[in-house]
């Protein structure tokens, strides 16, 4: 099996910083979009895929305008849905509930929100739909962590050890198959 390259780019800084933004659909700042364009410059890609949320979609479109392939939109690359907490600052959520969520987001999802396992299943389906050729996905921190869990086998708690600031780029060498696997070949923050 021939490996292929998958680049996962987190969207740029959002216009509403410091919030739990799963399904909240706000755009990125102009500086955030420019940071994504700069980060993607020079990548050898054949496909661009983006979450359908503005903060990812606008960055993908700007990358395409810089001479790339037009992005396909796939809502499976969205951030975890924070339910009733969506759009709130973390300190606006009861601290015990937030702590329980971070300790075990599958057993303690946000009220009306998504479980970690639901995000993982969604991202797994999105990965399976990708062409096995050099691809850039413009997405969100949670979706990147879910992809690392699926492709590299990192446990959910180990994933918080990765600092994924806005416009961070994780590059993977992916081996296709019934259960694809990957090796991290680059991390630029």
Summary?
It is an enzyme of class 3 (hydrolase). With 189 residues, the protein is an alpha/beta fold.
Find the structural class using helix and strand composition.
alpha/beta
CATH uppermost class: Alpha Beta
Task: Please give the domain count.
Answer: 1
Could you list the spans in which at least 5 consecutive residues all have pLDDT below 50? Answer: none
Q: What is the CA-CA span between the terminal residues?
A: 30 Å
- Helix and strand element order: EHEHEHHEHEE
| Range of helix content | 25-40%
User: From the 3D coordinates, which CATH architecture would you assign?
Assistant: 3-Layer(aba) Sandwich
Total DSSP helices = 5
- CATH homologous superfamily caption: Phosphoglycerate mutase-like
The proportion of residues in beta strands is: 15-25%
Name the quaternary structure: single chain
EC number: 3.1.3.73
InterPro entries: His_Pase_superF_clade-1, His_PPase_superfam, PGM_Phosphatase
Enzyme class: hydrolase
GO molecular function, one term: alpha-ribazole phosphatase activity
């Amino acid at each position: 099996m021939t490996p292929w390259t998958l680049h996962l780019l987190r969207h740029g800084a959002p216009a509403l910083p410091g919030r739990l933004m799963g399904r909240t659909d706000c755009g990125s700042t102009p500086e955030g979009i420019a940071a994504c364009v700069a980060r993607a410059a020079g990548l050898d890609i054949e496909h661009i895929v983006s979450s359908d949320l503005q903060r990812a979609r606008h960055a993908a479109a700007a990358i395409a305008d810089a001479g790339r392939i037009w992005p396909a939109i796939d809502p499976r690359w969205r951030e975890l849905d924070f339910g009733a907490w969506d759009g709130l600052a973390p300190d606006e959520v009861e601290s015990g509930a937030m702590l329980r969520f971070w300790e075990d987001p599958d057993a303690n999802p946000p009220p009306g929100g998504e479980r970690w396992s639901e995000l993982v299943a969604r991202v797994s389906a999105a990965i399976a739909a990708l062409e096995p050729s050099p691809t850039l996905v413009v997405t969100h921190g949670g979706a990147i962590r879910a992809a690392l869990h699926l492709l590299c086998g990192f446990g959910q708690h180990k994933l918080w050890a990765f600092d994924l600031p806005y416009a961070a780029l994780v590059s993977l060498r992916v081996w296709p198959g019934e259960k694809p696997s990957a090796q991290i070949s680059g991390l630029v923050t």
